[in-house]
Amino acid sequence: MELFVLCAASLPAMALLHHALQPLVDARRRLPPGPRPLPVIGNLLDIDKDAPHRSLAGLARRHGPLMSVRLGAVLAVVATSPAAAREVLQRRSASLAARRGLDAWRVMGHDAHSVIALPPRGKWAALRRLAAAGLAGPRRLAEQAAVREEKARELARRVAAMSDAPVVVARVAFAAVVGVLCQAMFSEDLEPGLVDELTDVAVEASVLSGAPNVSDLYPALAAADLQGVRRRAGRLVAWLYALMDTQIERRRCSRADGEACKHDLLDMMLDMEGEVQEDGWVMNQDVMRALLMELILASASLSAATEWAMAELLQNPDTMKKLQEEIAAVVGTNRHLEEADLNHLPYLQAVVNETLRLHPAVPFATGLAEAAVEVQGYNIPK
Q: Which residues form the signal peptide (predicted)?
């Protein structure tokens, strides 16, 4: 009992001593300057959870374009100027391009096959090439042009039919994007009820990915999953994996029955199944469903961008009017807008680019130092 009391009483003193000595330790390690962290919580109180980019910009004005910030127990080095960002993202990318995966998605072995969590080489590069060839290769884009135009018209008809009711832009946009993506991946649409359920799952997944998680800030506590974030993410991953498994098994059966190859992304992956790849990994069910799942969830960022664009246009009626006038001049009122028209709509392109600038899908480019490296005269520890 006395030992417990002694340890409990010494903890505050140890925390205060660590707080007092931290600047000296950082100076000897030649870390970038930054706001002085508090014991245990670090600089969390310096970061506004609703506008972290503004908080970091304010801190950078005081501490410089390359600064150290402690987020709980995690040391983060933040680059805020073009020169610092160029140094981190280009010149030192080989050492700093790895990723610190979110603890929420370390479930069912998903992080071992995730293009979001894998280091940017080998398996990660191969999966990205595969997805690009199956979805965005010149031949696939040409083959899917009619599908994209039909889904755009379906979206227009659906919104027009809801003219007397509120329209949740993100939901209808997500349904349209998922329709295009499923045609490219599976050569078929999902059932409408399944799309509605998938929309709810994608929204919850986005919330879990963006919410602060104690396990990410204090890795030593990750096993406890104190907020239950990993448990909630596990339910979502299980549901999504079941959906992907259904699609994979149906295709296996159709191929076994002698049906013609559809040459979509799923067929491309099944053609590679069981093959040992260049870096020793094997294309199997786990890899296939993880990639398909992440491509589906990525659709949520496109629908969110559509919603932000509409919100910004409603807040800026002059911009809305100018955009409507450009579309009317190029497309007219007697036909639908087509992909070929996009090259003649510079103002629409400017609206899209400004929306993505103001509301990027990933507001912070994050990396993990796989080795100690020097940036602008400061040490970035491993």
A: 1-27
Instruction: State pTM to two decimals.
Output: 0.85
Angle ∠(30,36,39) on CA atoms, nearest 5? 110
Give the position of tokens 């800026």: 316
Q: Which amino acid is at 312?
A: E
Question: pLDDT tens, 115-128?
Answer: 888 888 889 999 99
Q: CB burial class (10 A; 0-12, 13-18, 19+) of residue 120?
A: middle
Best CA proximity match to 27, nearest among 87, 68, 84 = 68
Of 172, 174, 148, the C-alpha closest to 158 is 172
DSSP letters, 238-271, are: HHHHHHHHHHHHHHHHHHHTTPPP--SHHHHHHH
Give the DSSP H or E segment for 66.
strand 66-71
Full set of structural domains in the chain with CATH? 2-98+367-380 (no CATH), 110-300 (1.10.630.10), 316-363 (no CATH)
